[in-house]
Write a structure and sequence with these properties.
Layout (H helix, E strand, L loop, with lengths): L6 H23 L3 H23 L2 H32 L5 H6 L7 E8 L5 E7 L2 E7 L2 H18 L5 E6 L11 H7 L6 H12 L4 H4 L21
Parallel strand pairs: 3-4
Antiparallel strand pairs: 1-2, 2-3
Protein name: DUF4191 domain-containing protein
Keywords: Membrane, Transmembrane, Transmembrane helix
InterPro entries: DUF4191 (IPR025445)
Length: about 230
């Protein structure tokens, strides 16, 4: 009689399917991913086997090499998959919002708190480092958006530090792949209750997303704001 599929079986199947999908997406941007992973895994196994034969314990060293090879392969795969994902997202409107949405616990992010008709946009993240305004778009145009948003933040929450970041590859800008790390490096100056109070005060202001439904993550190119939207 066939064994009934358990919840664990379904979870494992879903996990394997996700890994396969991630690999396919990564291979589109990184065509050598298969060769690299094979070289890492097999290379480590061969080295440990060679050491094992040399000292008379090929089985023990072979098993250790197998586990370490799988671990190293997983680490390399994760890093190259992340690099490929950032490469595909880079340059797309809303890419920074997708990164902020996955920054981790302790942060509250609000996408598109300010935007103009050229799709230059400012997102907001609030955590123990204070308020971080993250802009993406034309470096010259976003400066005015940032200045206006910082002025508003300083007026509403004057006791909370406000940082600003422009996402891009130019001088003084932060690369998309380094955005999360940059935010996490800001010094923590607020307590948990202070972060909650700041979020409550900002939430009372409302934001662009409250009045205009936008898709999460990168926004479609060519998308235009309705005439009622806020532009600067």
């Amino acid at each position: 009689m066939a064994r009934k599929e358990t919840a664990a079986d379904a979870a494992n199947a879903g996990r394997l399917k996700q890994i396969a999908l991630t690999y396919k997406m990564t291979r589109k941007a990184d065509t050598k991913i298969g060769l690299v992973l094979a070289a890492v895994g097999i290379g480590i196994l061969v080295v440990f086997l060679a050491i094992g034969f040399a000292i008379g314990h090929p089985v023990y060293l072979g098993i250790l090499g197998l586990f370490l090879g799988l671990l190293a392969t997983a680490i390399v795969f994760g890093r190259r998959a992340e690099r490929a994902a950032f490469g595909q997202m880079e340059g797309q409107p809303g890419a920074a919002a997708a990164v902020l949405d996955n920054i981790g616990r302790g942060w509250t992010t609000t996408p598109a708190v300010a935007m103009n008709r050229s799709q230059d946009v400012v997102h907001r993240a609030v955590g123990k480092a204070g308020i971080v305004l993250v802009a993406e778009g034309n470096p010259n145009r976003v400066k005015s958006l940032l200045a206006a948003e910082k002025k508003k933040m300083n007026r509403i929450v004057a006791d909370v530090p406000v940082h600003d970041v422009i996402v891009g590859n130019g001088e003084g800008q932060v690369e998309l792949k380094k955005l999360r790390t940059t935010l996490l490096k800001f010094p923590r100056v607020l307590t948990g209750p202070q972060v909650t109070a700041t979020n409550d005060r900002l939430r009372a202001l409302g934001d662009l997303m409250t009045n205009m439904p936008l898709p999460k993550g990168p926004m479609p190119k060519g998308m235009k704001l309705p005439k009622g939207g806020r532009g600067r």
